[in-house]
TrEMBL record:
A Pfam family: F5_F8_type_C_2
Protein name: F5/8 type C domain-containing protein
SUPFAM superfamilies in UniProt: Galactose-binding domain-like
Domain of life: Eukaryota
Length: 140
């Protein structure tokens, strides 16, 4: 049972990060590792291009029961912790047609767990029409 649980968690941490763009003034790490470390001060951030996204692509579709996201707590002179609020969490199997499965509702220094209920999909993304950031993108 322990091996199966470890294998399951490892599979849910094995994804590739891609983004619609970056926002250099915030100095976000923009790496998969920074989204899995549980730290509010590391993560990913995009600029406001009108259609912004932070995407996880899995080698094959895992079964996801929940996603944990959190605001990115960087320098408040260049980044608001609530950037991304009002956006959505989405999934797709073809990277073209997206289905909403939750809303981004950031509260400073608080993680947001979105219960999915068991969805098999290869592509998962955070989507917003303005600045978008997250310090966590954790799948269970």
């Amino acid at each position: 049972l322990r091996y199966q649980h470890f294998h399951f968690v490892a599979e849910l941490n094995s994804w590739t990060l891609s983004m619609s763009g970056t926002y250099p003034p915030v100095a976000a790490e923009n790496t998969c590792a920074s989204l899995l470390d549980g730290n509010f001060n590391t993560g990913a951030a995009t600029c406001s291009s009108g259609e912004d996204w932070i995407k996880a692509t899995f080698p094959k579709p895992p079964c996801v029961t929940s996603i944990t996201i959190a605001p990115l707590q960087k320098d408040t002179n260049v980044w608001e912790a609530t950037n991304g609020s009002g956006g959505s969490v989405q999934y797709s199997n073809d990277d073209q047609t997206w289905t909403n499965c939750g809303n981004i509702e950031y509260v400073a220094m608080q993680k947001q767990k979105i219960e999915i209920g068991g969805v098999d999909a290869r592509y998962w993304r955070l989507y917003c029409i303005s600045y978008l950031g997250t310090s966590s993108f954790i799948f269970r």
